[in-house]
Amino acid sequence: MVIIMTSLTPKELLTTTRAVRKRLDLEKPVEIELVKKCIEIAQQAPSASNRQNWHFLIITDQYLKNSLSDLFQKGWQSYIDSPTSVAKTMNSDDPKKSKTQRRIYESAKYLVDNLKNVPVFVIPCVEGRTDGSNVSVVVQSAIWGSIAPAVWNFMLAARLHGLGTTWTSFHLRFEKDASELLKIPYEKVMQVALLPVAYYKGSSFKPAPRDPVDKIIHVNTW
Ligand SMILES: Cc1cc2nc3c(=O)[nH]c(=O)nc-3n(C[C@H](O)[C@H](O)[C@H](O)COP(=O)(O)O)c2cc1C
């Protein structure tokens, strides 16, 4: 039976939908029907020219989950040494920031080590690719802008139904391998994320620390 958690206010939903990793319940099965319901909600997102050129792979097969987890692990290894890695910001001058970044590192590593045991993976895809040369900003915006809101809608819907998710991208370093494995037509369709999906343990998620809003607002001119 599908249970909808109606006790969240819209503001709570929007401010407490977190990247859930350590609190994913790896023991409790997730009903495919529930995942489909969340995808139906994802479909209410906007898309450029209303093309709705999105696809969602639901993966429950253990062999496929193991293979994707191996790619995820390899992706983590190459990410962690890269300049943009969270590991590079764990020792900043700001102790609060360092603490937050260390927590994210540990949480991300936990997911790497436990991914194959997550009940369901969802891989959102979009028709079109942005990694070729000469893809204009307009086209890039149309492609990514037509899938990112749908993914976030999915994550919000999942939270409403008691499911935790995290937007992850480590496996995309080996996207072609993953496409072959999943029979996705790589030349025409781009994977954008891998969302581990499981019931979350406990229900108390809080708003996250963020930079002061004035740091990012520019009124009229930059
Ligand atoms: C585009 C994108 C890629 C991400 N890739 C990963 C990833 O590969 N692995 C992971 O554990 N988290 C990943 N995250 C989750 C972020 O680490 C997380 O959103 C961020 O630390 C803020 O935490 P919060 O969502 O709980 O506020 C990604 C998030 C985004 C938006």
UniProtKB/TrEMBL annotation:
Domain Nitroreductase: 17-193
A Pfam family that the UniProt record links to this protein: Nitroreductase
Family to which the UniProt record says this protein belongs: Belongs to the nitroreductase family.
EC number per UniProt: 1.13.11.79
A single GO molecular function term of this UniProt record: 5,6-dimethylbenzimidazole synthase activity
Keywords: Oxidoreductase
InterPro entries according to UniProt: Nitroreductase, Nitroreductase-like
SUPFAM superfamilies: FMN-dependent nitroreductase-like
Species, as recorded: Candidatus Nitrosocosmicus franklandianus
Stated name of the protein: 5,6-dimethylbenzimidazole synthase
Lineage, broadest ranks: Archaea, Nitrososphaerota, Nitrososphaeria, Nitrososphaerales, Nitrososphaeraceae
Recorded coiled-coil stretches: none
